[in-house]
Amino acid sequence: MSLERTYRGLRVVDLSENIAGPLACMILADLGADVVKVEPPGTGEATRRLPPHWGTDSTVFLALNRNKRSAAVDLRTPAGRDAVLRIARGADVVVQSFRPGVADRLGLGFDDLRRTAPRVVYCSVSAFGEGALGRELAGYDALIQAFTGIMEMTGDPDGRPARAAPSVVDMSTGMWAAVAVMAALARRPDEPGAQRLEAGLVDSGFFLMAHQIMGYLGTGTFPPRLGSAAPSTAPYEAFRTADGSIMIAAATDRLFARLCTALDLPGLAADPRFRRVADRVARRAELAGPIEERLRGAPSGYWLDRIVAAGVPAAAVHTLAEALEHPVTVERGIVRDAARGRVHGLKQLRLPIDTGADCPMRQPPAPGEHTEEILSEAGLSPEEIDRLRPSTAMEGTAPPQ
After folding, report:
1. Has this prediction a pTM greater than 0.70?
2. Per-residue pLDDT tens over the stretch 359-388
3. Which structural domains are found in the chain, ordered by start?
4. What is the DSSP string of 251-272?
5. Count of Cβ atoms closer than 10 Å to residue 322 Cβ
6. Residues belonging to the active site
7. CA 285/CA 291 separation, integer angstroms
8. Could you tell me if 106 and 75 are in contact, meaning their C-beta atoms sit under 8 angstroms apart?
C-alpha cells in the first residue's frame, strides 16, 4: 500500500512554525500532498536554530518537515505578501500559526486567502484560541501544560510539579489539526466555499486529560502527583529492582493474584487489606513496600521473565537508547532511512499509521531551497522573482509575530 497516493494532487501552503502546524502539514505531505513551506529569507523559520543539531540542521526541524518544499519569502513586504497569495492560488489547504490577528494584518487572513483560493481549508493554530481573551495570550507547550493542570499532576508525590518531557500538547495539537483538515476535505462535496478551522493548544491540553477531567466533574476530586503510579488501580507503577526499574501494570484483581504468585508473595494476595482494586488504591504505599522489597533481591531481567510468563503486563524502564534498540522497535519499523540528501545518514520516524505502508521520506528542505521553482509555478516572471530576493541586510530577520 502506498500512503503517498492518499492526497496526491492536494496543494498545501504551510505558513506555520514550531511543532503543531508543521506536524499537521507533514502528515499531509506523507500522505502525498504537495506542501509548500513559506519561510523568512536567510535562516528560515525559527525552529531551524533550536539545538540539538544533526550536522548543521536542527533535529526539531528535521523531525517535522520532511516531504515539503521551501520558498523563502518576506511576508512583511507587499511584494512578498502578493507572492504568497499567488503561491496559494487554488490551494486546497493553508495552515498558519501566527499570533491571532497577525495573519489579517499581513493580508494573509482567511478572507484574503479565500479570495485567491475559493475552496480553501484554512487552519489557524494558536495557543489559547482567537477569542477576545485567548488571542491576547502567547503560549507554548510547557505553558499549556502549566495552565491546564497537566504539570501540577505530573511528578513525584513529594516533588515539584514537572513538565512531561515529550511536547505532548504541541504534538497532539498537530494531529488534531490534521484530523480537522481531513474532515474538512471530506465535507467539500457538501461545502460550496472555503472552510475556516481552529486548532488550539489549550483545547488539546485539556483533552489529553479527558478521564481525569471526567473524574473531577463527577466527583469533585482530582488525582495528586503519583510519580509513575495510576490513580485508578494498583499496583500500576514502576518498581526498583537489583539493577534498575520495571513497570508493572497489574490493573485487575486477577492480574494482582498472578503477580503475587510470580513474586512468591502468597500472603499479599490473601491479605484482606489488598483484596479489591479499591482497597489497593487506598493503601498504595503499604502495598508497594513489600513488592519493591521483593523485587530488589534480583535483576530486572529475572523478574520480567517471571512476571510476563505469569501473564502480567510488565516492561523494563528503558533509556531512549535502549528503547530504540529493542527488537520490538526494530520489528515495528519505527525508525527508517530518509532518502539521500544534504544531511548525511538522516533517519526519520514513520507516521504511526501502517507499518507496511510505503511512505516517502524525502529530506526536509534547506531554507528557500525551492523558491525559484515554486514562484515560477505561481506565475512570477524572472524579474519579479529577482525583485523578491532579500538584500544581505535583511537576511535572517525574524518572522512577523
Report:
1. yes
2. 889 999 999 999 999 999 999 999 999 988
3. 3-208+334-394 (3.40.50.10540), 236-324 (3.30.1540.10)
4. -SHHHHHHHHHHTT-HHHHH-G
5. 12
6. 170
7. 10
8. yes
